[in-house]
Amino acid sequence: MGKLISIFFLCFTFVCTSCNIQTSIHDPSLEEEVSLKETVTTKICFTRSKDPKDLALVNVQRRVPKGENIIDATLRELFLGPTKREMLQGIMTEIPVGTRLIKIEESEDAILVDLSSQYLVGGGAASVQLRYLQLYRTLKSLVPKKKLYLHVDGKNIKAIAGEGLEVTQPLSAIDDYTKTHEKSDDLQP
Questions:
Q1: SS3 of 39, please?
Q2: Selection from 69, 16, 71 nearest residue 44 by Cα
Q3: Nearest by Cα to 106 from 62, 59, 69
Q4: Cis peptide upstream of residue 170 (ω within 30 degrees of 0)
Q5: Based on the number of CB atoms within 10 Å of its own CB, is 179 exposed (0-12), middle (13-18) or buried (19 or more)?
Q6: What are the boundaries of each domain within the chain?
Q7: What is the pTM of this model?
Q8: Which residues sit opposite 58 in a β-bridge?
């Protein structure tokens, strides 16, 4: 048995040295450089709270794959919520966990976003308002001149949640009670 292992080891060594096997060195800086070239920066609107009385809407920059539809990729990031690092900075989301994008329809002057029904679940008046503003501002940062339409499970909606935030179509800016505390600086990832 020992002789068989020795022969196997010798054969393996011979094959490895006779074939031009190259070792690769992992260089993370090269990987990051490549990934930055293949991505674009987008803005995601989240909420930030240092304490319960100091709530604001803030934009966070994210990198998304360059070849993907920018609206789709940005909304996916919005629905994933803040990263752990962002959460440590007090960044949160009011968009319910499990909300997903069903489809996007884009024309020359309008965008229709169809979301899962999870988007409508729970929350009081403040939560519903912030949820709407997160979606609205994230989309407007991408397509400021286009009209925005919101559907949930393929249906036009007129209100969000039991608190009844009225939703006009196309979507429009709504009053933001956090505006007096709003921060305009963008947060870096």
A1: strand
A2: 71
A3: 69
A4: yes
A5: exposed
A6: 29-175
A7: 0.73
A8: 46
